[in-house]
Write a structure and sequence with these properties.
two-stranded antiparallel ribbon; Mitochondrial ATP synthase epsilon chain domain-containing protein; flat; about 60% helix; 2 domains; ATP_synth_F1_esu_mt; alpha+beta; proton-transporting ATP synthase activity, rotational mechanism
Length: about 70
């Protein structure tokens, strides 16, 4: 079994955590460039009963989900 599954992560969340760890391990110049590249500008909205919900930033929603996941452990 994959360790990310055993830890209760989705594959996308696992990749986000791994990418963040790699970016943070770089020296100052390359780290700043990589952090800018890693910023997300994607937005999404949940649809229920044919109506669009609030539009959220994917990056912010991912951070909130990761924080909620960390608190529940």
């Amino acid at each position: 079994m994959a360790y990310w599954k055993a830890a209760g992560l989705t594959y996308n969340r696992y990749l986000a955590v791994a990418a963040r760890a790699v970016r943070r391990s770089l020296k100052e110049g390359p780290r700043l460039t990589a952090e800018r590249r890693g910023q997300m500008d994607l937005r999404f909205a949940k649809w229920e009963n044919g109506k669009q919900g609030d539009v959220k930033s994917l990056g912010e929603a991912n951070q909130e989900a990761m924080a909620a996941s960390a608190e529940s452990k």
